[in-house]
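Worked example 2:
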Amino acid sequence: MRGCTGSAAKDSDSNSAVSSGGLRMRKPKITRMLFALSLGCFVMVIFYFNTNLKPASEQLGERSNGQKPRRSPLQTLYDGDQVESAVQAIHQGRREFLEEACRSYTRKRRVLIPEDLKHVIVDDQHGLLYCYVPKVACTNWKRVLMVLTGAAGSHRDPLGIPANEAHVSGNLRTLSEYSASQINQRLRSYLKFVFVREPFERLVSAYRNKFTRSYNTAFHKRYGTKIVRRHRPNPQPEALERGHDVSFEEFVYYLVDPATQMEEPFNEHWERVHSLCHPCLIHYDVVGKYETLEQDSDYVLRLAGVEDRIRFPASSKSARTTGDMTAQFFRNISPFYQKKLYNLFRMDFLLFNYSVPAYLKF
């Protein structure tokens, strides 16, 4: 800009030495030159800002391959020609249902804070934000994102990454680590997705994994001993010390006890999805479901344009917690405690369109 004003001043100085008659003749020409010069400067400024204020996803796309900017996943999502119309319609229906449920059941809105974003993983290379929910295939999604972001090193197969490594803090960045302006920019321009599951199936899956597996001694010590002490009449000394034999009924008593959440927040493995991912504050573009995991995961990878580079790992169905299995766990839970537990997880049922399970007796 300084060069533009400097040249205009030079023209003015040279013309000031011309006679008054010559000045009158040249005035229209000088005016045209100044106008053209100013217009040129204005165009240069607009070009500069357009170049430097592109969405981060577009800039990253250019830098990553040096070729023509790729479409961002968010752009692809809202272009119906890029995906199967039937799958797109399913996900549009889920988005609309969630928005309507949020309007119906959320009375008080608040502003997001960094603490709300600790479960939202960022993939800057591909313009993705993923809110991970334990017991909803989050280990495999973390593995996939480690491969996509380069955090997996030489691994190209997600299943080649050990499960414990996928959960190491620092391997993947979360949205809470960014500045406020960077957070807002990513929320606007990145594809936001979350995977959810029938709430009680997820709860039983968490119980089975954390309290019935002998190798989970850390959970037994941390939570099991506390549950036994509070909710088991006349516990044996070994159970008080090890916390290794917590029953599902005792686990339910622990969850619905008001003192539990007054003392500390729920562990993420049994925390409600709406408390982990804040779906009424973050407008998710894709709500995947565990019940349609393979189809929904492939959909996200297609939107990201990486379906030819990576496949979502197929999960073993033999160990999966099913609806029938969940019903068996609820057989010995009284209607009173079933009702209390349902009220605790009610928002997850309502927001993600899960019906009240038929096996509940209240």
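The longest strand covers residues 191-196. The longest helix spans residues 20-52.
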